[in-house]
Amino acid sequence: MRYLVVILAHLVLWTASFVGAVLLRFEFSLPSGYGQDLLVCLPIVLASRTLVFFALNLYHDVWRYSGARALLAILRATVLSSALYATVILAGVHPHHPRSLLLLDAGMAFVLVAGARFCWRIAYGYRLAPSRAIRSSRRQVRRLLILGAGDAGEMLLREILWRHRSRYEPVGFLDDDRRKHGDRIHGVTVLGAIGDLARIASSREVRDVIIAIPSASGTEMRRIVDFCKAAEVSFKTIPGVEDLIDGRVTLNQVRDVAIEDLLGRDPVTLDTGAIAQVVGGRVVLVSGAGGSIGSEICRQVCRFGPSMLVLVERAENNLFKTHHELIRLFPQVAIVPRLADVRDLPRMRAIFQDARPAVVYHTAAHKHVPMLELNPSEGIQNNVFGTKALADLSDHYRVRRFVMVSTDKAVNPTSVMGTTKRIAEMYVQALAQRSRTRFVTVRFGNVMGSSGSVIPVFREQIARGGPITVTHPEMKRYFMTIPEASQLVLEAGAMGKGGEIFILDMGEPVKIVDLARCLVELSGLTLGADIAIQFTGLRPGEKLFEEIAVDEEHADKTTHPKIFVGRSRPISWNDLSGRLEALKSLHGLPLERIRAALIDIVPEYCPTPVPEGRLGLAVASGGTQQAAATG
Description:
Blueprint (H helix, E strand, L loop, with lengths): L1 H24 L8 H22 L12 H26 L5 H30 L3 H6 L4 E6 L3 H13 L4 E7 L9 E2 L2 E5 L4 H7 L4 E4 L6 H14 L2 E4 L17 E2 L2 H4 L9 H8 L3 E5 L4 H11 L5 E6 L2 H14 L4 E6 L5 H11 L3 E4 L6 H6 L1 H21 L4 E7 L8 H17 L5 E7 L1 E3 L5 H10 L4 E3 L5 E2 L1 E3 H14 L5 E4 L5 E2 H11 L10 E3 L20 E2 L5 E4 L6 H12 L6 H11 L12 H4 L14
Parallel strand pairs: 1-2, 1-5, 2-4, 5-6, 8-9, 8-11, 9-10, 11-12, 12-13, 13-18, 14-17, 15-20
Antiparallel strand pairs: 3-4, 6-7, 16-19, 18-22, 21-22
């Protein structure tokens, strides 16, 4: 029924536009006998427009959502239908039909149809919104300022005016671009700079602020948050540019400012063509697919259309969650979950035999420093021999590329975890010298928000009321976001020729104690008054400051500004293989025997002394400095 009403409405509008064009063309006085010819032309006009609008599917548009795209679609349909009926009429029905009448009719038809749609949209908006008098009398209406008068701010304001007038009353914008000051966007004025927030919020009785600057860097966000705290207003933000779906901003996306926003870095620019050549249309296997990095690599890979994505994960719940999410987000990709442990050589051989992957991303690893100090044999079995099994299978089945995710803790390691990852790097490099597979390693530091990393632990401690446990006041770590790290892994994997260790630009290191302070402030608490920081001392295997490369690796620039490449000294395959066999035979033996074997393979390994009783307490201290380099 609605469909018929819409068609009838268009027919009425087109009839009105044609009649109006005729009257204007002849100054409201038709020549003798001309009316009969025009009655013949009118059905052709209506049929042409109906046919074109139907072909372009414009009758199904919802008028109350009409916007710029709808306007362009109506213009296109009007021009095409005018060309169609002009061809028919001038070709035989009425060769002397005035050309000016064709233009007048097209213009009036566009104005009437577009105008009717937008009038309906305006009327619908006013019907939804209560009157201003009623709104102002409601106590739940919230007066707010929007920080950022750019495209994101405009879209957010439009969303609020359209759907949320009964809840919010936007009183103005603040923007540091002085050229915008005094401008009006949808009737709302740009009142001043963001630095004026305290004064304007006080004078206009504003208690809510939305930060609508998706491209803001971490430094800019910290500055804005400081202004919000000084003004004593509640503040929220919209996602970053890479998280906005189709570039649209909605109120549902508004969220609390997170620590990731304050530590945020510039968005990553990818060579999508190079990555698409590597994974597009090919079988890709991701080990550790249920982990933080592994699952994000899976999401990123799916964007480039692999023919099949094989998820290898030994934790059933993590595998289920990742698989369920991916089949929902990427129904066009064949996604195969495989419950398996990378150390299980027969199981992994069967998976490779069945899938025949062209690209392997190896993220599976034990990653927590204190846990591997307590269980070194398990760390060696998983991080060293799990990597060896996967790399050997990749060589045997002629995988095109093998990309291993490593960690900054592999540089001059002081922990079992870092040393096992360094040995894995060495094996992959040695294998690259004798294989057709392109083996590359990607090394980076901590990842914000990954399982067991410092930020979730701090949040849990804050929720419990504290104290927040930090091992040392001078401890620093590099941090990246999970999407940034995963995207750069794909980029580095695409540019690798074989044997390289790619080193990601981690920016400036962050003091862990400063990170704790930021989280406390974002939680609305005061450090010292509401919650305390307790320094527990360095734990076994930890360093105050992590390195990302050693001098002998000579890190050089690549074509990507955030990726560097280091080339370590050549590694003897035969020598390394023999030492790995000796290491494997020590499984389950005392820690000192294992450490001696690790030092034999990695001479730069310098284990930290373990005070009596301290090793057992390492896990109980809250796990605040656990490595988060791998998923």
